[in-house]
Design brief:
Layout (H helix, E strand, L loop, with lengths): L1 H52 L6 H11 L7 H7 L22 H12 L6 H15 L5 E4 L7 E4 L6 H11 L7 E4 L10 H14 L4 E3 L7 H7 L1 H8 L4 H12 L5 E4 L3 E3 L10 H6 L13 H14 L4 H4 L5 H6 L14 H23 L11 H7 L9 H13 L1 E2 L5 E3 L7 E3 L1 H10 L4 E4 L8 E4 L4 E4 L13 E6 L5 E6 L3 H4 L3 H5 L1 H23 L1 H11 L6 E3 H12 L5 H8 L7 E3 H12 L7 H21 L6 E3 H15 L5 H11 L6 E3 H14 L1
């Protein structure tokens, strides 16, 4: 009996270990593909940014288009934005059966919204715009770092990424209770993208924020960025749900996002940020940055940087003319430099700060006229601008330094090694080690950090000797059963208490017999989904893989060793996966340890072949580029209509041609755009855009 028990125990441990190994491999696949996609987004954005920096508009029309291409949220002044998004002009028809909102909001309004969204109802565009308008007004009064105390409530609940998964938010409220004067919440960014109900999550969170402004706190995440939204689905979601007023809603949301606070501090001891920190993170600087200037954190604009340098020179008593005596005389004659008024006494610090601000603003306006750049938004006294004005003796930072501070806290990840290095996996932010964490905690007298930004299998994870806590609240993030969601509760003792959950309707309907084998079936289902995504990735790089395989096949036998196969695949995909361990799921076993790589690639092509019978090489290119093509399409489609107008295409082509040194007349561009417009309706939809790409690759 004893030997039998030992054998059963040994068998069971091996079985559990194999399951855990499969689960970890599946996880690595999902995470590697996700981060590779983020790298593509940043590379694509950098490409467009490069074009903009090296393109000189030849007319005011071209200049306006370029400014709209990436600065859509900044191109409206305060009054213009309110006029453009005028909710009062929208009438709610009698046939509307959804929830109604009136301001100031009451708890009953929030309850009505939750019930309406459970019934798949949609809030009228007038109420959405009104809510966004009121939210923006409230956020503008908040500091960059929100201070929360556990003295006023029994505990503070911190939630991580939700990513448009409304069921997870419902489950959190069901388990933990709705926000109230005794129930405080901190939502740590990434409310939108990937999931299908991002807008509903925003509406619910903004509603509770206005009802309980002292109990509900929102941090900005890296997905609260209109450039990221173009790729990951939120822009598309809004336009599909609000076809008529979607553009106005998106415009307001972009502006609301840039006003979200950057961090939350609980009892001066626990710092909550979305991504992480770096060795240059400075909370004092973060508190004083004018956060609304960074509509998209993905770009640090060079032209804006020059304006910031002018501001620094003026504060230091150095004029633009002194800094650049060989300036443009013609421009100077057209735009005479304003002469500053007599400086007041330093004794009256408030009066002196107003004088400095007015003088600097006049000088900046003069410089903008020289380079023909219009101001993005009227300056106004918000919390952050007041902080910067009352501390004139402090250091002055460049826009690049401020941008890096925000980029690091939104995009960074912890690592087990010491030090701080560039986050090449995501393409933005950095990796920070336990020594960096220790220095920040010691410098600001903190106990630990709470961050999100990374999906964790159990919904949470400690690292850096339990000094960094990652919390992730979107369950089933990659696939049903792939991970749990979690939230953490902190009381006055600041000891974290975790609640895990899985918003999985499939699991709730299983019989008892099915539940007994559920973990195995679930792992198999998630594993199958992961390998399907990985095979798509392999197929999308067929041409590059063939070249890599041939480098090991010196005699052109069409066969390589399995070890060389693993090395070649990693050299092409750069996913950092354990390919030798994954090989049995991707390659059929061979007797002599050799792989016929051409037949293996043919098998991959057969799996991915579509019903349209597109040739494999063409399908490969479309698979590899579809996400980038869709993002490019949305960037060109500046009014988010789902169609590219001839004018939008014309101006974008001028941008590309300047980069590629291709001379093409206006008539030539018009002929090109008409050839892409297959149905001759005067616009280019995405299918026509994709078809034109397919035809070009086919002809090549």
């Amino acid at each position: 009996a004893f030997k039998a028990a030992v054998l059963i125990q040994r068998w069971y441990r091996r079985y559990v270990a194999r399951l855990e190994m499969r689960r970890r491999c599946t996880w690595r696949i999902f995470q590697s593909i996700e981060y590779a996609c983020e790298q593509d987004q940043i590379k694509l954005h950098n490409f467009f940014s490069y074009l903009m920096d090296h393109f000189t508009p030849s007319s005011s029309k071209e200049r306006d288009f370029i400014s709209r291409m990436f600065i859509s949220g900044e191109s409206f002044k305060e009054a213009e934005l309110e006029k453009y998004c005028d909710y009062e002009s929208l009438e709610v028809p009698d046939s509307y059966t959804g929830p109604h909102l009136s301001f100031p909001l009451l708890p009953d309004h929030a309850t009505a919204l939750l019930e309406a969204f459970k019934q798949k109802q949609q809030l009228h565009a007038r109420y959405v715009l009104n809510l966004l308008h009121e939210t923006r007004k409230h956020l503008k009064q908040l500091p960059n770092i929100t201070h929360v105390s556990t003295c006023y409530s029994e505990e503070v609940t911190v939630c991580g990424d939700l990513h448009g998964q409304l069921d997870d938010l419902f489950l959190i409220f069901y388990k933990n209770g709705l926000p109230s004067p005794s129930k405080s919440y901190v939502f740590n960014g990434d409310f939108v993208d990937r999931g299908k109900q991002s807008l509903e999550i925003l509406i619910v969170l903004f509603t509770f924020l206005l009802i309980y402004p002292k109990e509900v706190h929102l941090n900005r995440g890296n997905h609260e960025d209109h450039m990221v939204n173009l790729r990951y689905g939120f822009t598309k979601e809004v336009m599909q749900k609000y076809k008529v007023h979607g553009k106005k809603i998106l415009k307001m949301i972009q502006n609301v996002f840039c006003w979200l606070p950057l961090a939350t501090l609980i009892d001066q001891k626990v710092l909550i940020i979305h991504g992480g920190i770096s060795d240059t993170t400075d909370l004092d600087m973060l508190e004083k940055i004018q956060r609304n200037k960074f509509i998209s954190v993905l770009r640090g604009k060079k032209r804006k940087e020059s304006n910031r340098n002018v501001e620094i020179q003026e504060i230091n008593g150095e004029s633009k003319a002194e800094a650049d005596p060989a300036g443009n005389e013609a421009a100077l004659s057209l735009c005479p430099q304003p002469r500053p008024t007599q400086a007041p006494s330093m004794a009256n610090k408030l009066e002196f700060s107003r004088w400095v601000r007015q003088t600097v603003q006049e000088q900046i306006e003069w410089c903008r006229r020289l380079v023909d750049i219009s101001e993005s938004e009227d300056e106004e006294l918000t919390y952050s601008s007041m902080v910067s004005l009352t501390d004139l003796d402090g250091p002055c930072w460049t826009r690049q330094e401020e941008w890096k501070q925000i980029l690091d806290i939104l995009w960074s990840d912890p690592m087990p090694q010491e030090g701080c290095r560039v986050n090449t996996v995501r393409g933005g932010g950095c990796y920070f080690g336990p020594d960096v964490t220790g220095k920040i905690l010691e410098k600001y007298n903190l106990q630990f950090l709470i961050r999100s930004h990374e999906c964790k299998q159990e919904g949470y994870e400690f690292c850096h000797n339990r000094k960094v806590l990652t919390i992730f609240s979107a369950s089933n993030y990659y696939e049903i059963g792939s991970n749990r969601g979690a939230y953490v509760k902190l009381g006055p003792d600041l000891i974290p208490h975790f609640v895990q959950y899985q918003a999985n309707k499939t699991a709730h309907t299983l019989t008892m017999t099915q539940r007994q084998g559920f973990p195995v079936a679930l792992i198999s289902r998630v594993e199958e989904s992961a390998f399907r995504a990985l095979r798509e990735k392999l197929f999308a790089h067929t041409s590059a893989l063939i070249s890599a395989f041939k480098a090991y096949d010196k005699d052109n036998t069409g066969r390589i060793t399995l070890s060389n196969w693993a090395t070649a695949v990693e050299s092409v995909l750069h996913l950092g996966l354990p390919w030798r361990m994954l090989r049995p799921q991707l390659v059929r076993s061979t007797a002599d340890g050799m792989l016929e790589y051409k037949s293996w690639l043919d098998d991959l092509a057969m799996e991915q072949r579509s019903q349209e019978h597109i040739q494999s090489s063409l399908l490969e290119v479309i698979y590899r580029n579809r996400s980038n093509l869709e993002t490019i399409f949305r960037i060109i489609d500046r009014d988010h209509s789902g169609l590219i107008s001839f004018e939008e295409f014309h101006q974008t082509w001028k941008l590309f041609s300047s980069h590629m040194n291709i001379e093409l007349t206006d008539d030539g561009i018009n002929d090109l755009v008409r050839s892409i417009d297959f149905n001759k309706d005067g616009n280019i939809d995405f299918n026509e855009f994709l078809e034109a790409f397919r035809l070009v690759k086919q002809s090549q």
